[in-house]
C-alpha cells in the first residue's frame, strides 16, 4: 500500500476507537484498534525512512527504442519517428530470423506474425504492411520501370487483363433512320508471374543496438537490387542476334519485344514500326554518329494517344550522342542547349530519364534510346509482396548470414506496334526505340 492509503487506514482506526471510548463501547476493542493504529503508524514511518518501496515500474515494452534512430541514413518514409519505427521493425524481423527470441517476442507483442516458408532452418517472413508498401515505394524511387509502367496487382500466377483495342464509332444517321451500333473491342493481355530472388550477406555480429541500421540497410539493399533488375528486364533484356535465347527472367522487355517482331534478324530491324535505325553503317555504332534527325524521327513516329512520353537512355549516350549535337546548334536554339543540362534535361520538349542499365558503350545493332508512354503500352504485374528468408549455411566460413528476398512479377510490352516489309502496313505502338545501324 502507498503511504496515503496507510495514513487513511490509520485515521479510520483512530476515529473508530475514539467513538467507542466516548460511548459504552468495549474497551478491549478500543485497545485493539489503538494497537493496530500504532502498527500502521510504524509501517508509515518505515516506508518514509526507506523511501517508496514500490514505485511504478517503467514499462520498457511501451517505450520507443527506435526513437534514438541509427547512424546511417534512414530510407523509410514518414516523419523521423515513423521512419525509425519502420526501420526498427525491419531490423527486428532480421534479428528474429537470426534466432533472437527477444526480437521474436517484440514482433509477436506488436502483432507482426512470421510465416514459415519451410525452406530453411530459421523460417521466413512475408514483409508486413506498412513495410511492404515502403519497399514498393523504394523500388519506385531506385528504379524506373515501376514508376512509369502501368502497375497491375496480380491475384494469380497467370492473369489476363482486358485492354480496349477498338473504340465505338460516331455516325450521322438520316431522318427516321436507325443509329448504327458499335461496340468496344477488348483484347486480353497476359501476365505470367516470374520469381526473382536476391541474396544479401549480413554479419552475425549485428546486435540489438543497431536494429534501426539493420532494418534500413536491408530495405535499401533489397529495394535497390530488385529495382535495378526490373529495369534491366524492361529496358535491356536479351534481344541481340548473337544471343537469341529467352532472357534469364523469362520475360520480354521493350527491345526484345520489338526485335521478336522481325525474328531477331538485324537486317530486318527497319521493318518494325517501333524501331528507328540511327548512326551510320560500318562505324561500330559510335554514339557520335547519331543525329538529332534520328531522334526527331522517333518523335514523329510516336502516335498521339501516347500523350505522356518520356525519353529513356543511358547518361553516357545522352551526353555523347545527343548533347554534342545540341551544342552544335545555332544561337536561336539556346533553350534546347540549356534544357539539355542539369538534373532534369528535356529533348524536343519531353523529359529525359537516365536508365543506367541500358547500354552505356557503343555497339552495333544495340538499343540506345527509347521514347514512349509506358503507362499506355506496358503492363507491370505485381504478384505479391517481398518475402525474406535467412540461412546460416551459405556464408558459414565468413561467419555471416544469407538473407534471401524474393518477389514475383511480370512485364508485358503489349502495345509494340506492327512490323512489316510493306511500309504502309507498319505501325508504331506506345513506344519507339533507337537502334544502332548494323554493319
Describe the structure.
This protein has helices at about 5-20, 25-50, 80-95, 100-110, 130-140, 145-150, 210-235, 255-260, 290-300, 315-325, 335-340, 375, and strands at about 125, 150-155, 160-165, 185-190, 195-205, 275-280, 310-315, 345, 350-355, 365-370, 380, 385-390, 400-410, 430-435. With about 450 residues, it is α+β, with helices and mostly antiparallel strands. It is elongated, with a radius of gyration of 35 Å.
Question: In short, what is this structure?
Answer:
The protein is 35% helix and 19% strand. By secondary structure, the chain is an alpha+beta fold.
How many separate structural domains? 2
Terminal Cα span: 95 Å
What does the largest sheet look like? 6 strands, mixed
Residues in helix, %:
25-40%
How many strand elements? 14
Mean pLDDT: 78
- Overall SS class: alpha+beta
Q: What is the succession of H and E elements?
A: HHHHEHHEEEEHHEHEHHEEEHEEEE
Radius of gyration: 35 Å
What does the overall shape look like?
A: elongated
Amino acid at each position: 500500500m502507498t503511504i496515503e492509503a496507510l495514513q487513511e487506514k490509520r485515521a479510520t482506526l483512530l476515529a473508530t476507537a475514539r467513538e467507542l471510548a466516548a460511548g459504552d463501547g468495549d474497551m478491549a476493542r478500543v485497545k485493539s484498534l489503538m494497537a493496530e493504529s500504532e502498527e500502521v503508524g510504524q509501517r508509515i514511518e518505515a516506508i518514509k525512512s526507506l523511501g517508496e518501496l514500490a514505485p511504478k515500474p517503467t514499462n520498457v515494452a511501451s517505450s520507443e527504442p527506435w526513437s534514438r534512430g541509427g547512424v546511417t541514413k534512414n530510407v523509410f518514409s514518414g516523419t523521423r519517428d515513423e521512419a525509425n519505427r519502420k526501420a526498427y521493425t525491419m531490423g527486428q524481423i532480421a534479428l528474429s530470423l537470426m534466432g533472437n527470441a527477444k526480437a521474436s517476442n517484440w514482433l509477436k507483442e506488436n502483432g507482426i506474425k512470421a510465416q514459415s516458408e519451410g525452406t530453411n532452418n530459421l523460417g521466413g517472413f512475408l514483409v508486413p504492411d506498412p513495410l511492404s508498401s515502403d519497399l514498393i515505394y523504394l523500388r519506385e524511387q531506385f528504379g524506373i520501370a515501376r514508376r512509369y509502367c502501368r502497375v497491375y496487382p496480380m491475384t494469380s500466377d497467370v492473369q489476363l487483363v482486358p485492354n480496349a483495342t477498338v473504340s465505338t464509332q460516331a455516325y450521322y444517321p438520316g431522318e427516321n433512320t436507325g443509329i448504327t451500333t458499335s461496340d468496344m473491342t477488348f483484347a486480353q493481355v497476359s501476365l505470367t508471374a516470374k520469381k526473382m530472388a536476391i541474396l544479401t550477406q549480413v554479419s552475425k555480429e549485428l546486435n540489438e543496438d543497431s536494429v534501426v541500421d539493420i532494418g534500413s540497410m536491408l530495405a535499401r539493399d533489397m529495394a535497390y537490387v530488385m529495382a535495378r533488375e526490373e529495369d534491366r528486364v524492361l529496358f535491356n533484356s536479351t534481344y541481340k542476334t548473337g544471343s537469341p535465347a529467352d532472357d534469364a527472367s523469362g520475360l520480354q522487355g521493350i527491345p526484345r519485344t520489338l526485335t521478336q517482331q522481325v525474328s531477331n534478324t538485324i537486317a530486318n530491324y527497319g521493318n518494325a514500326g517501333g524501331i528507328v535505325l540511327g548512326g551510320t553503317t560500318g562505324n561500330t555504332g559510335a554514339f557520335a554518329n547519331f543525329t538529332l534527325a534520328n531522334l526527331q524521327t522517333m518523335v514523329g513516329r510516336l502516335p498521339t494517344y501516347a500523350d505522356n512520353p518520356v525519353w529513356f537512355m543511358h547518361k553516357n549516350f545522352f551526353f555523347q550522342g545527343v548533347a554534342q549535337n545540341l551544342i552544335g546548334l545555332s544561337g536561336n536554339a539556346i533553350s534546347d542547349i540549356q534544357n539539355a543540362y542539369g538534373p532534369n534535361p528535356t529533348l524536343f520538349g519531353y523529359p529525359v530519364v537516365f536508365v543506367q542499365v541500358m547500354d552505356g558503350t557503343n555497339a552495333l545493332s544495340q538499343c540506345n534510346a527509347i521514347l514512349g508512354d509506358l503507362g499506355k503500352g506496358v503492363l507491370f504485374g505485381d504478384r505479391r509482396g517481398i518475402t525474406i528468408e535467412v540461412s546460416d549455411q551459405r556464408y558459414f566460413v565468413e561467419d555471416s548470414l544469407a538473407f534471401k528476398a524474393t518477389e514475383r512479377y511480370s512485364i508485358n510490352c503489349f502495345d509494340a506496334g506492327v512490323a512489316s516489309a510493306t511500309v504502309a502496313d507498319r505501325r508504331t505502338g506506345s513506344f519507339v526505340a533507337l537502334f544502332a545501324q548494323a554493319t
